[in-house]
Write a structure and sequence with these properties.
With 318 residues, the chain is α+β, with helices and mostly antiparallel strands. Helix 12 (273-288) packs across helix 13. The protein has helices at 2-17, 19-24, 26-37, 53-63, 65-81, 107-113, 123-126, 130-137, 185-210, 242-247, 261-265, 273-288, 293-300, 304-313, and strands at 86-92, 97-101, 141-144, 157-164, 170-178, 215-218, 228-231, 236-240, 259-260. A hairpin with a 5-residue loop joins strand 4 and strand 5.
Length: 318
């Protein structure tokens, strides 16, 4: 193992010395950030360090509802991967572990690796690793064994996905780590799909929780994301997930500038704005009345004959 440590340290140093390597490879670029930007040494070895309980509690509180919403998702993911020697970890957006799931027999191993609550796995603290690199590059990553920067971490495989908040911002990272010697890159790929699915499920539930008083709809999106829009009673879009923001070229993070739903999805663009509003009101009344025109007219406060005339002018078929 000492020989492999030495070989890894030499490989990292040689790669970092080559500026061309960083331009060609995201991994080399991350190694270079770790050494040049963060001043880390791949040969460094030290005992795992953890933040105090009060700091961990404060970070959980800062995550708000996301921490609670993630609980059953962590349980479900762990039920799928835990028996194979994997641990499931949730961090905040700074890479600090705030929750985890380990088998009792594996807990001491993960704790010794520094994966317990309160551990800092940012790139600035640990160099290239699943959690920190996922947050830095804002994307899903798999860091397999000797792709880690620190020689002390090369026994692990780490599979990660960012978790986006209701306003498009990164709020957490979801990680599955394993030290199985027979862990293959093919196995990592299969686990990566599970991690991605769990992260997107947390996002969807958190979005619907935040916009619980709004109408939330799913938009057909070929990308691998959660495309949800939230609208108020006037069909004004007041919220969108990160995937929906990307799909509709909206502001990537933060509060949205209100926009009519029809302007986004191109619904009935041939009609005038006021005419669209009238048509929407009539259609809602008809749906509520189960297509009974008399009941719909009563809800709208007009006569049956008036409603028929209006339906004809709005091109609403009997």
């Amino acid at each position: 193992m000492i020989a492999s440590f030495s070989a890894h340290i030499d490989k990292v140093a040689q790669t970092v010395e080559s500026s061309a390597a960083a331009a060609r490879s995201w991994l080399a670029a991350s190694w270079r950030r770790s050494m040049i930007n963060h001043g880390l040494d791949p040969a460094r070895q030290r005992a795992a360090e953890y933040l105090p309980d009060a700091d961990i509690a404060q970070r959980r509180q800062a995550l708000g509802r996301v921490a609670a919403i993630a609980q059953p998702k962590l349980d479900q993911l762990f039920s799928l991967v835990g028996s194979s020697g994997c641990g499931v970890v949730l961090t905040d957006n700074q890479g600090v572990v705030i929750d985890h799931r380990f088998e009792d027999a594996d807990t001491h191993i993960f704790q010794n690796w520094g994966l317990g609550a309160g551990a800092d796995w940012s790139e600035a603290a640990q160099g290239t690793n699943g959690i920190g690199t996922c947050l830095t590059e804002r994307r899903e990553v798999v860091i397999h064994r000797d792709q880690h920067f620190m020689a002390s971490n090369i026994a692990m495989s780490c599979i990660d996905a960012p978790v986006y908040g209701a306003e498009g911002e990164i709020v957490a990272a979801l990680d599955v780590s394993s030290a199985r010697v027979d862990q293959t890159e093919t196995m990592n790929g299969m686990i990566s799909a599970l991690v991605r699915q769990a992260a997107r499920s947390i996002e969807a539930d958190n979005f619907q929780d935040k916009f619980s008083s709004a109408r939330v709809m799913m938009i057909n999106d070929p990308s691998d994301g959660v495309s949800l829009l939230a609208t108020n009673s006037d069909d004004i879009v007041i919220g969108a997930t990160r995937a929906a923001r990307r799909a509709f070229d909206l502001r990537s993070e933060g509060n949205l500038k209100p926009v009519p739903l029809g302007d986004l999805i191109g619904r009935d663009n041939k009609s005038k704005g006021f005419e669209r509003a009238q048509r929407a009101a009539v259609m809602r009344a008809l749906v509520r009345a189960e297509q009974n025109v008399s009941l719909a007219a009563r809800e709208l406060g007009v006569s049956r004959a008036t409603l028929y005339r209006r339906m004809k002018s709005l091109r609403i078929s009997d």
